What we know:
The longest helix is centred in the C-terminal third of the chain and has 28 residues, at about 480-510. A hairpin with a 7-residue loop joins strand 16 and strand 17. This protein is α/β, with parallel strands linked by helices. The chain is built from 17 helices and 22 strands.
Amino acid sequence: MKNYLLGIDVGTQSLRVGIFDLQGKSLAFSSKSYETYYPHVSWAEQNPMDWWACAKVCTREVLKKADISPDDIAGISIDTFSCTVLPVDENGTPLHNAVIWMDIRAVKEAEEITATGHPYLKYAGDWVSPEWMIPKALWFKRHKPDIYKKSAKFIECTDWMTYKLTGKWTLSLDHIASKWNYVKSEGGFPQDLMEKVGLEDLMEKWPKEIKALGEYVGGLTKQAAEELGLKEGTPVAQGGIDAHLGMIGLGAVETGDMALIMGSSTCHMALSPIPVFGSGVWGPFDEAIIPGNWVMEGGQTSTGSIVKWFKDNFAYKEEEEAKQKGVSVYTLLDEKAAQIPAGSEGLVLLDYFQGNRSPLRDPKARGAIWGLGLKHRGEHILRAIYEGTAYGTRLILEALKEQNFTVEKIYAGGGGAQSKLWLKIHADVCQTPIILTEDTESMALGAAMCAAVGAGIYKDFKEAAKNMVKVKTKIMPDLANKDAYDFYFDKYKRTYEHLKDLMHEMYERA
């Protein structure tokens, strides 16, 4: 009997493959990292062939770790980062590096599209992000016309990986409803908008078949099976955005729940039976994740990536100390930062290192830290990073509350959820309970749940969640830190107000 599911998680820094049983218990993981290239300020690219190379290594390795046969895999699905625009030829060969989500080179194009005031924009928070498909495609057409003209397909990472697995070109409803301005209830894509901005030919470069999350796409091809070490014909289900599958993997599927996916960036997803407009977060997205529900998606462009930036550039001493003690450098850094009181002894950090995604929606914003004195050490800075990113989450919660949507509990997942200190700071800053599930690898689990639905093991995601998601613990907010964090959160908001114009001038100069 086929008792296992395989989830492929294509993240910003690495690709991970996990094997789960039908009750959601993970058997084994394998991961391999790849490079991100930064050709210019605010640009970010990856080589798609690196994704596939890592998938080949990790899939074979995870099967060996789990000690199971490829015959035991009942289904496969994937989750990937979104807003990753990739031009390919008719055979799926990349014509350019993938322009990944954190790349915001298309600011001017996004501003032009937003300025059209098209009716569909209300489903995107009344604006178009420079991270999204249409502005990035427009940038390619203007700045790299030869590549744009030569491309047979303009797609995302999910679409390309699905093609590599099945030989079929599909679009994920999750991606297009969230990042491509597709509105199912309004009839689909805004062709008139694309004609208005000079992209009348773009839809010709998009796959025609649209699949919902968990919908069966096809069997694994012979070539893919040979390269991955799997069995030809293994069912492949439609995947989608990593954070959205993380929401499913956390079981945050009821009104009032929020999924907090903490990775290189942080995503905040909540479902509502009715659309919620005017909050400054992305959406409401029409049936992007679960039929009959609208998705509100807040997001912080830089969170875990700021922690990594700090570790890579300023924690040389801790790196060596961690090696000597045989522990993770992040564990050591957290131990030191935990000794610093709430408020980091007078530090305020803005987490806008790659702009603000929501609710300020300002791609020209930049990071800042102030209040520094000679007393402050590295652990003060790290705690200020944790607190600044938590203030960003609180800003999103308050924006939703102003539109009468209240978040009652937060389900946390992703790599950042492994930091107990970071989670505790989020609970205290937001004064909201944080719920942890047994498997913090919620995105890979969400992909496995897609595989389970696509293979017919469970009828839908609610049934899959009931069987595959287990709550582990709850972190309650500490009322003793409420006053301190209320004070510093106020300074966080006011800092942006005072620095906004300076940030924009700096952006134009860089």
